[in-house]
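Shapes recur. One chain:

:::
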Amino acid sequence: MHVYSVTPESASQQREFEQDYLSRLREAGAACERAGWSGVLVPHNLHEVDPWLIAGQLGAATDTLVPLVAVQPSSLPPHTAAAMAAAYATLYGRPLHFNLVAGARDDELRRTGDRLGHDERYERMREYGLVLRALLRGEEVDTEGRFYTYRGFRLEPRPEVLSQCKLFVAGSSPASIGVARDVADVVVTHPARYPEWEESFLKPLLAGGYTGELGIRIGIVAGSAGEDAWATARERFPETWQGRQETLLKTVSQSSWSRQLAVDALAEAAEAAEAAEEKEPGTDAEPDVYWLGAFRSGQASAPFLVGSHEDVGSRLAEYLRAGVGHVLLNGSYEDDHEDINRALLAARRAAGS
């Protein structure tokens, strides 16, 4: 199992940071490496530091960590992305991975002049991924597509380690599944509860001919005692009026995963409220390990698994047994790393791996 953390926020409305961002970034990378994790997801959006500058800093602060750099095709052409990977490999002697994203926020895309519809953005991603993969492999690219045209272009210089770069494709819509089949080494989704995830995502993906690797984006809050983990989770992700309004807005998002998670998050809250009303005095229902409260708070973009190491491991093992080999954590505090690793170990044992 390959585990990836995510870069710390450069700024936050909820927290004040004592250290400067560069120090926090380097320490986060070093802590992930000490934890034995594979890499760090470097997001791409308009309100964060440029992901390529961040990747360079992570390379300088670590020895083996592999950045997983989010790339929107609208942000730079595939030959530039390949050249950045070549530069990184030249400087640090290791590959980096690409997380190809179509963009979840229409307002950001419109502000930068990207007016393609949802499925068109995935058509562009398919062309992008095919060109990028060919360049990373050292092939000469001669193609004329709707979005990209190249005439006998080859990446030079090209360190041989670029053959180890992987393309991750994020998404769960039919359009994204089609792109994953054609270009992805790893397809990543924000999973529903396992039975629903298997039925609505995994089976259609495999039926469509996908033969690559699987990844999930999920948060983990675990502890020796489940009640302590739940106390931590609820303290970090309190439900607010603003968070609920943001969740309501996401129910009409063009992003398939964001829209579905928002619908599920509201349904989960309604079910919890109904259960609380029907609860007999002096009884407490055991909360479900799979939790969308962090998403509902507006401070997280993925579901969380919350509970004891064994309970979290048991639930995560369901995905591992189905073939998931990459776990992208939705953020973590360094103090949590030991507990997360204990939950991951429990998941491997429960999955028989």
